[in-house]
């Protein structure tokens, strides 16, 4: 996040002019994307238009300082000729302006093929992201994800302890694009799509929290966060589906959710990627680092 105070020079000037002059490396496209997502506050009010500013206005821009720094470094977990696995930090999107993909492309700018992500994570979810380094690999991996031949495991620190130690949850999800939020129903409703979320308790803590291994068979927006909250076990630090009082109690600024394991279970031929079959890439994450 970036906090700025408007000085007299920018009194009655447009917001975009002020931001372009005062935030290094930010682009006009990024500014308008932030506005669309209401990720800019002026005097503690979220805005979605390029308003006029006045002297002494306080402007909060919800963008990672890492994205604005020329010293941003990718945490490369694994790499070979065909794939690249990156450990994504919190507060950065996988695609779009000033995203993880932007920085991957800047580093591999000399390549004939710019590495492309094969799946997504929410901006405030950390963990392993798989990139393809050539077109053949990209097509294979997209197909393998589609056919559930690559397992994605998440660590989730939730408030409460599920009574059932291991379960497969089946519900329905509706995405409200305008409000950027999803709703869960146990019964089918018009406009809702089926979701399947499996979890297993890994550890229980004295703070009335538990660590879950989570898998999703359907990759919908905010699925894990909303589904766990729906059954009464919200993720610690989740400002949208969690409990604000609990988040403050644990001093959690971001949701405690991490994509910590990728497992390749190819059921069909994977051409140049057959060597990956039965391989597992796993982050050794401590709960405190979630």
Q: How would you describe this protein?
A:
The chain is an alpha+beta fold. The chain has three domains: 2-63, RNA-binding S4 domain (Structural Genomics Hypothetical 15.5 Kd Protein In mrcA-pckA Intergenic Region, Chain A); 76-146 and 260-289, Pseudouridine synthase (2-Layer Sandwich), CATH 3.30.2350; 154-255, 2-Layer Sandwich (Pseudouridine synthase). Helix content is 18%, strand content 31%. It is globular and about 65 Å long. The two termini are 19 Å apart. The mean pLDDT is 92.
- C-alpha Rg (nearest Å): 21 Å
CATH architecture of the largest domain: 2-Layer Sandwich
The percentage helix is 10-25%
- Give the helix tally: 6
- CATH fold-level topology of the largest domain: Pseudouridine synthase
Shape descriptor: globular
Quantity of strands, as a count: 15
List keywords for this structure.
alpha+beta, Structural Genomics Hypothetical 15.5 Kd Protein In mrcA-pckA Intergenic Region, Chain A, Pseudouridine synthase, 3 domains, eleven-stranded mixed β-sheet, 15 strands
SSE topology sketch:
Layout: E1 2-5, H1 15-22, H2 28-36, E2 40-42, E3 45-47, E4 58-61, E5 76-79, E6 83-88, H3 100-107, E7 116-117, E8 126-132, H4 135-146, E9 150-159, E10 166-176, E11 181-185, E12 193-205, E13 209-216, H5 223-230, H6 244-249, E14 257-264, E15 280-282
Parallel strand pairs: 8-14
Antiparallel strand pairs: 1-4, 2-3, 2-4, 5-6, 6-8, 7-8, 9-13, 9-14, 10-11, 10-12, 12-13, 14-15
């Amino acid at each position: 996040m970036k906090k700025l105070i408007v000085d007299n020079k920018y009194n009655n000037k447009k917001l975009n002019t002020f931001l372009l002059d005062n935030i290094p490396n930010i682009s006009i496209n990024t500014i308008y994307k932030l506005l669309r997502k209401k990720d800019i506050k002026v005097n503690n009010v979220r805005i979605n238009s390029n308003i006029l500013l006045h002297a002494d206005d306080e402007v909060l821009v919800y963008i990672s300082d890492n994205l604005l720094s020329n010293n941003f470094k990718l945490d490369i977990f694994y790499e070979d000729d065909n794939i690249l696995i990156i450990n994504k930090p919190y507060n950065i999107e996988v695609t779009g302006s000033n995203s993880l993909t932007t920085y991957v492309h800047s580093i591999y700018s000399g390549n004939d093929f710019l590495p492309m992500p094969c799946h997504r994570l929410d901006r405030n979810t950390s963990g392993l992201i798989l990139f393809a380094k050539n077109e053949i690999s990209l097509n294979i991996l997209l197909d393998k994800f589609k056919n559930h031949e690559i397992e994605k495991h998440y660590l989730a620190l939730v408030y409460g302890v599920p009574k059932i130690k291991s379960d497969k949850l089946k519900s329905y999800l509706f995405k409200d694009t305008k409000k950027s939020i999803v709703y869960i129903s146990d019964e089918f409703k018009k406009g809702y799509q089926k979701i399947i979320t499996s979890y297993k308790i890994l550890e229980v803590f004295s703070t009335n929290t538990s660590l879950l291994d989570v898998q999703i068979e359907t990759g919908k927006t905010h699925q894990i966060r909303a589904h766990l909250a729906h059954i009464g076990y919200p993720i610690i630090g989740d400002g949208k589906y969690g409990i604000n009082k609990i988040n403050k109690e644990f001093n959690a600024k971001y949701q405690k959710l991490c994509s910590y394991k990728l497992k390749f279970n190819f059921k069909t031929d994977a051409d140049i990627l057959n060597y990956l079959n039965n391989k597992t890439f796993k982050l050794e994450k401590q709960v405190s680092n979630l």
